[in-house]
Amino acid sequence: MKNLLAIINDPANSKDFIEYTYQMAEDLNYTPHFLYTQDPAVYAMSSGAIRPGANPIGTEIEVDRKNAIRLIQEKIRTVRKELSNDVSFNFNVETGAADLVINRYISDKKAEMAVLEGRDKNGAWTSDTANSGIIQKINCPGWMIPYRMSYDPYQKIIYATDYNETDINNLKNLINLTGRFSPEITALHISDSDDFEQKTKEKGFMEIVKKELGYEKILVKTLVDKGKKGPGENINKYAIDNGANLIVLLKENVNFIKKIFKPGQTKKILKTAKLPVLVYQE
Fold first, then answer.
1. Mean pLDDT score, 1-29
2. Are 120 and 249 in contact (CB under 8 A)?
3. Which end of the chain is more exposed for a tag (fewer CB within 10 A), N or C?
4. What's the pTM?
5. How far apart are CA 190 and CA 221, in angstroms?
6. Which CATH number is 2-145 given?
7. 156-276: what fold?
């Protein structure tokens, strides 16, 4: 069985994320591998200059490591008991930047996908570049899960497209990944005009989708942004208005993804959406 690498932000408040990941992994036929990373650079910045008599950074990391192991193991036991779930799992604490640790797991064939959780306790995802930055640096599909979100099987999916040929392969992977749900998938393009060129692109992309995928429950749609809200806000609003429970993006289209994860806009967009996002590689 493949591994789903779940990055824990806060061991003391990790129960909901662990529960979500357990249920998600079981439905997708993955084994959850929980991971807490300790970046020495972060400890150095938070500690400031070492004062005489103060604990060195290495000691602080070791104390945090022991606490993290104890807390996460407690949460895992609680979740397994509540769900009456005997699914196997792995758990590690690793020293290093999260993106580097994730990529090492991927290159060593110890995981195929990574899941990250939002950090804002008000229910929004992080407004800084931490999680969105990690998503763009890792060499595998990456999930972003809102803080304290309850799991909902992925039966209605919005796939944000820029009419890229790479979308076809990712749509195939998405169908294979979520096939047990037989989801309705909308390939959604955000445009600033409804001119003939856009309509031609949509028609051509739809023909390719029908020919290559052979999946009946898929729709290609172009949404014209007349209010200039931006692609991220439009995609999230469309997803919520249509009862979707997953948004999928393609990381290969760098300019498109930068619009979605633009610093300063992210918090506003994701507070409204509160939906999981899956970001595919090229």
1. 92
2. no
3. N
4. 0.86
5. 9
6. 3.40.50.620
7. Rossmann fold (3.40.50)
